[in-house]
Give the backbone structure.
Amino acid sequence: MTEPVLFQMSDRIALLTLNRPEQLNALSYALIDALMAALDRIETDAGIRAVILTGAGDRAFSAGADIDEFSESVRQGRAAALRDFVRRGQAMTARLEAFRKPVIAAVNGLAFGGGCEITEAVHLAVASERARFAKSEIRLGMPPTFGGTQRLPRLVGRKRGLELLLTGDPVTAERALELGLVNAVVPHDDLLPAARALAQRIIRHGPDAVASVITATTRGLNMAIAEGLQVESEQFAGLVGSRDLDEGLAAWRARRPPHAS
């Protein structure tokens, strides 16, 4: 049986590939569960410092939920649909958003529905020039359920977010870059090298410092600024006496690059 998520690791970077290319990497329940298990494995492996998430094949990053599977949950009623579909999807995007190692989406094709919500949730995203993005849930007669109504307006602004959410119209990779949904657009063949180069620029810094930046930023975005500043203080306090901070300060004083962790 084909694995729904492929795992590779090199140069301290894990590459996770959504692996249902014939179904445009639709987010089946098994795929979501496999992705969550892979994140659990990565979280406890000190040798892995960053994650790149992409899709198998040349057509799609992920075209969204597995509609056949989701339809069956809806047929079983509200409780089943909320339990099996909504909570599973929201747990996945929340896990990606709060993950303490940087997660970079390498968007290689269509990122519709839940695929777009993954892009919204991860820390950084690089898109192929072939990528297309859409909030297509409205076409099914429903709102996004994996966090899209909340994260997208925070990323791109309320009016621009609502335009995407209410029309369901696809946008190009360049438009996604203008909106702030992705960090860069590159030629298709350069996608994974560009994502790896971005990851390398991050992991040259200490892992505890990187994790503290991710945590303070992710949590603070959903707080009043006074509460966010308290989170920022807590993250700094946790680094006092750490190898990352001690080495960073020593390197600065000696006018040399910090030694790699």
Notes: The first strand starts at residue 5 and ends at 10. The chain is about 50% helix and 15% strand. The two ends are 39 Å apart (CA to CA).
